[in-house]
Amino acid sequence: MDTLSRVPPKWRAEWLLNRGLDASRYTEYRKPESTGLRLVGKYGRGPSVAVTGKDTLVVLTLGSEVALLNCANPHYPQVLSEIQVNFLPGMSVLHDSFVFIGGNGGLEVWNIANPAQPAFRHVLPYAVSGFAVCDTFLYFVSQDTFSVYSIGRPVAPYRIGCFSASGNVGAATPSTVVMRQPGDLLGFVDVTDPTHPKLAGTYPGLALAFAARNNICCAAMYWSTDDDHFRFEVLDISDPTNVRRLGAIDSVGGWDIHLSGPFAFISGFQTHKWEFTIVDLQDSANPHVVSSCRTPSNNYGVWADWTSDWAYVADMTGLAVINTTNINLPVLDTVVLKADLAQDVWVDANRAYVADYFAGLRVLDVSDPSQPVELGGIDSLSYSSSEAVAVRDSFAFLGWMPPDVLRSVCVLDPTHPVMAGGVRGDTVPVPKALAVRDTLLLLAGRFRFQIVNVARPRSPVLVGSCVLSGTPTNLWLTDTIAFASKYVVNVTNPALPVSLGTLPTTSTAVAVRDTFLFAPELFDSMSVFSIASITSPRKLTSLVLSGGHFYNTGIELVDSLLYVGGNILHVVDVTDPVHPVEVGSWQPPREIRRLQYDAPYLYAACMEGGVCILESTLTGVTEPEVPKARIGAPRVWPSVTNGRFCVEVDGLHSEEARVELWSATGEWKGGDAIGTTTRLQGGGRAELDLTDLSAGVYVVRVRTNRGVFTQKVVKTNRR
Asked: Using one digit for the tens of pLDDT, what is the confidence trace for 499-515?
């Protein structure tokens, strides 16, 4: 999965098929489906994979969105809007005042006459890896069919011609469409009569990128021995039945090519050996390299208007803006919209903190969950490191390389996070999962479980460690036990955590309630264990989940609902743990790596898909918007919390309610927990905080002149 994420989306179907793997996710149309969950909002930023534009409008395809930017001042591109889609788009094409967005979720048409307010207009229900627009025609291949659509009215495209074919469309001229065919061939389709397109000729060679204009086609031919090799070729396609090479340059190529004026702009590849390059095409028989420029990471897409003195590269970690005023010496000016693979998310006080692999830490404002806004971030300098994040007070903790592998970041000012301290890698492995308990940070990493004291977050100190037999990717905490994926650790003494063994499961993320442990197995089922004896877990039952859940590393348990992340988000009712029932599902734009519930929303870190914010529509879930209770009957939500929770009483009118907090054993906790007894006047809501209390069951007692009412709340030490 991680290897596939380094391949541009429009290449993934072919990459999988060439390796004998299932490519249906990229070849079959995926209509967004959901039961029991509603997508509220999305921060869809992920790796940048394609870029195009017109005049000062730049369109960047990244993650599960398409961003529209005003580059009138290229030094400071301004984001006008971000089009959120429910899939990973492979590319976008501008046509007049419309943008076409293609991927396995269809080919969508958006009106961007007002780029600050794009409007959805149509979707063609076909999975497409690549497509092209020329004049009033749209060309693509899907379901082994080459199709020609008329887009004279983009809001109502219709097919006018087709023929059986396999491959990916990538470029078009008024008379010829270029596509990559199976067998390492470029195919040239005659579309002089668009109602009767036909394959006219082929040309050998695996072209990772190609672009066409008038009678020429430029292609980046790739092959591999012990190393990657490229050859940039200029082809004469005036007669598509007899395509011939005009000129070539060795050791020049990449994932994308854009033709503008007398130049070909080449994106570069996924290693620093192949960078952004400008080639002079004035003599097509003798093309030559003019200059090149390095960008921070993998280069997937490129667009430039040679008259504007600027070029734009869809660098994996953002949009790289390159100044080409001196065509012989291009200079990287800035990188914006930095993002990569969302690995983990931690929500605290209307802020979402995202561990974003190559892009470090991203801080989001989620006070309006329908429109998350990035406030700031701090880069990990293109090193593969940030896979987990945890937050305590005004500090975020996350993995980092080099040289420290655990860093503390001050986020007091979320618009300008500042590195504050760290623990070096000779004592702590790169954390795959993090959790906070009071002043202790618990880490799960490669063959290690460790505990770090963060009472002084600028100087974290390792206090305890134990060896594990494998590499966990998730953490679930109970009072004295930590479940690092399937590895069980006793954390009663932080200075001496003790490994208790391994659970008999393939699960990479488990959840615990009372003496029941829920373990989604790899591929298609979930097991339920009794852990009344933690050293002798006993399997009670299993449940087959619809559609599988490959690569599960995300899990969350909220009241009686268990959320299992993966390529599908499953919702399982575990009211009766011995008889679990799947009651809902949702298809994320990409596999879910981590889940966190922060009432009333569920946050999903969806790798390239960014962060999705969901709301349960199932009955029985604690949410703020429920039918009003009878007078004096309190509501407590969430009923399971690691800190804050709310008490709400409806229908009091002029009556007064007094809220008290007691332990389950009858010990008064009001003063210690909330400072003073809280009073609700005229029907209202109070927020209480259990952060400083130990884990366990507490009783919320609401006194009114009509009686005393009680509810239970569970304090847990997991996040």
From this structure: 999 999 999 999 999 99
